[in-house]
Design goal:
alpha/beta; Alpha/beta knot; 7-stranded parallel sheet; 7 helices
């Protein structure tokens, strides 16, 4: 085996990305404190051609050097929008026929390995604050919750890791 060089990877340009078909998935980042986490989610969203990212509450917005450090330019390719209030974003997406799912440990959640996205539907996933998680008031208006099973001593994963795992679940169901 030989590692591919950048030219052999046939990556598309930002303009081609903007014009390409996207995975019908929106990622909502609510009150994310770390700009490195925000940048990492942008980069993963670019890799999987995610439709859009909503940056809610205190979540930082591009352009910013700390976001760029981990996004590596993905903040230019992935569509994004800022909203002060997550609740208005959830309601707006639901009005446009998105199924909105919080990624959180809640009573009655669906374990991620048991979740199979309907290929004919559009989805949005909420990622909450690094310490407090998804707000209960946001969970209350969601269409459901998905949870990543964990078996160690910690009760959570880094938010950018969680986002990547959940995005992969949506992508892998289409492969």
């Amino acid at each position: 085996m030989r590692k591919l060089n950048v030219l052999e990877m046939n990556r598309i340009s930002v303009d081609e990305f903007k014009q390409s078909d996207k995975t019908p998935l929106v990622v909502i980042l609510d009150d994310i404190r770390s700009m490195y986490n925000v940048g990492s989610v942008f980069r993963t969203a670019d890799a999987f051609r995610i439709e859009k990212i909503f940056l809610c509450g205190i979540t930082a917005q591009p352009p910013h050097p700390e976001i760029h450090k981990t996004a590596l330019g993905a903040e230019d390719s992935v569509d994004w929008e800022h909203a002060d209030d997550i609740h208005s974003v959830v309601k707006k997406l639901q009005e446009h026929n998105y199924i909105v799912l919080a990624t959180e440990q809640v009573q009655g959640s669906t374990m991620l390995q048991n979740f199979i996205p309907d290929p004919d539907k559009k989805y949005a996933i909420i990622m909450g604050n690094e310490v407090k998680g998804v707000k209960q008031t946001a969970i209350d208006i969601c269409d459901g919750c998905i949870e990543i099973p964990q078996f160690g001593t910690k009760h959570s994963l880094n938010v950018s890791t969680t986002a990547g795992i959940v995005m992969w679940q949506f992508i892998s169901s289409k492969l």
